[in-house]
Each structure stands twice: as C-alpha cells, then as structure tokens.
Amino acid sequence: MHIANRIAAIGLACAAASFGSLPARAVVAGQEGGPSAGSTLMVLNARGGVCTGIVLSARAILTAAHCAAGGAELRVHWRDGGEPVLVVPSTVAMHPEFDAGAIRSRRRTIDLALIRLPEPLPGRFSAADLVDGSLPRAGSSVTLAGYGVSREGEARSTGTYRSAALTAVEPYGPGRILLWAADGAGGGKRPGAGACQGDSGGPIFGDDGIVAVTSWSTGPSGRQCGLLSQGVLVAPQRGWIDSTLSQWGESARWTRRR
After folding, report:
1. What is each CA distance from 7 to 18, 41, 44, 49, 221, in whole angstroms?
2. What strands, in cross-sheet order, belong to the sheet with 50-57?
3. pTM metric for this prediction
4. Residue 258: in which H helix or E strand, if any?
5. Measured torsion, CA atoms of residues 182, 187, 193, 194, in degrees rounded to the nearest 10
6. Distances from the Cα of 144 to the Cαs of 31, 36, 123, 168, in angstroms?
C-alpha cells in the first residue's frame, strides 16, 4: 500500500484544530524520538493524507511523490510554541519516473517529490544528511522514522516523530532503486516494527545518514503494516535531486561529494 494516511475526518480546513489534540505516537511498534528529528516535519494534503517530509535546506523538503499525486493541495506542517503552522508550498516537483499506478500494475516507479517553500523554515530546523556512498547490505541495521500512526488504522495516533530499528532484507533489487527492511526478530514473516500510514516520505537511516525515503509497507493478512517496509534509495536519484534544487537556488547535504 501507499502509506499516505487517507483520513476523511482530517481535511486541511480543520487540520490545525485536529493536530492540536493528537496524542504523541508514530511508527508501529517504534519508540518516541529518533535520528535527525530537527530535520523532519509533516506534509498534509487536501484529501486528508498525512506524510512525513525531510528538510534538505531552509526552503526545500523531500517526501514521497504519492503524497502529492493527483494535483492534491498540500500544506507543510509543524508546531511553533505548541501552535500548529500550515504553509502552502510555492512549488512541487514530482520525480519524472514516478508512476501513480505502479503498485497495482507492478511497474517501475520512483516515488519521490521535492517541495519548495515560499519562505525559509525557522532556525530550529536543520538540513538532513543524505548518503551518496556505500549502501546498507542485507542483514545490516537501519533506522526508520516518521510521524505516522503507532497503531494501524488509529488516525489519532499520528503526529509525533518516532523511530524503529530494522534490518535490511533486500538492499537494492535488480533496478537498484529500492531498499526493503523488516523487524529483525520477525524477518518480514512475523509482525513487528515498521512503517505505517503517515510515514511515507520519512527517512530510513544507515550509518552515515539517510539512505532511503519511505514509500510503502506490507502486513499480515488483513493488515497493511508490520511486515516489510520499503524505501526509495536516494543515492541513485542524486542527479534529479541536485538539479531540481539548483533550479530553486537550493542545495542538499550529501555525505560524499561528486
């Protein structure tokens, strides 16, 4: 499933009030907090979708493309002194190889989007480190984080940054596009920690920084979360990320320069 959280009860018209009362939860079977909390925020759409976004610079956010698919009206969201802030993006750039129907038809897709803000973010936000170098191997440890639900299907458990330690299951696949990860104890065969609704667009960390952006998850029969979490590797998409940001007068921080 694409894991933008489609919750009809939370539209943009009432987002500020709704998020004001949300309990502090996210990432199924995760823990509160995690790496680079100051480099993340939330991305909302007018269909009631909730996603996570990664700060690349003072005015640029990286997220999953399906969060913005179909021309959905977006708001970038964070809290300032306990009060919700909702900002309308000035520009949204979808990866040219994003295919909204790819999951159903089993086609290749690169589920990434970049968001440009009209004004710089507050100074408490910092740019994340993206990894352009060696990538996690099968069996290595990764950390997934985001603002999604802590309990599948419970919309009101959305809203606080949480993380979970996972194990890389299949780092690349034949197209070197995707990273698959699972709870180390369950190995993707028994339910455990992982991404769920609202974590799309959030970071998956390796040893040196963010290696992938969360896009999809699977669960046991009748569920959509708790088995495998999938992310789009950022290193193979560096050319698109850098060229798009350059057009906006922005740049990302990479752990290895070309």
Report:
1. 11, 18, 11, 6, 22
2. 83-87, 74-80, 40-45, 50-57, 60-63, 113-116, 91-94
3. 0.88
4. none
5. 20
6. 11, 11, 25, 11
Pair of tokens at residue 175: 């197209």
Tell me the residue type at 5: N
Amino acid at 151: R
Per-residue pLDDT tens over the stretch 96-134: 999 987 766 667 889 999 999 999 999 999 999 999 988
- Taking only the tens place, the pLDDT of each residue in 10-61 is 333 333 333 332 222 347 878 999 999 999 999 999 888 899 999 999 999 9
Q: How far apart are CA 164 and CA 169, in angstroms?
A: 15
The string of DSSP codes covering 205-220 is E-SSSEEEEEEEE--S
Distance of CA 85 to CAs 15, 69, 121, Å?
10, 22, 11
Half-sphere exposure of 42 (CA within 13 A, CB side): 28
146-156 core/surface letters (b: 16 or more CB in 10 A; e: else): bbbbbebeebe
Query: 229: which residues sit within 8 A by CB, 6+ positions away?
Result: 144, 166, 180, 181, 182, 194, 195, 199, 204, 214, 216, 217
Q: Residues with Cβ < 8 Å from 235, sequence gap 6 or more?
A: 130, 131, 132, 133, 135, 211
Report helix, strand or coil for 136: coil
- Residue whose tokens read 């999938």: 230
Radius of gyration of the chain from Cα atoms?
16
CA torsion sign for 216, 74, 161, 158 is: negative
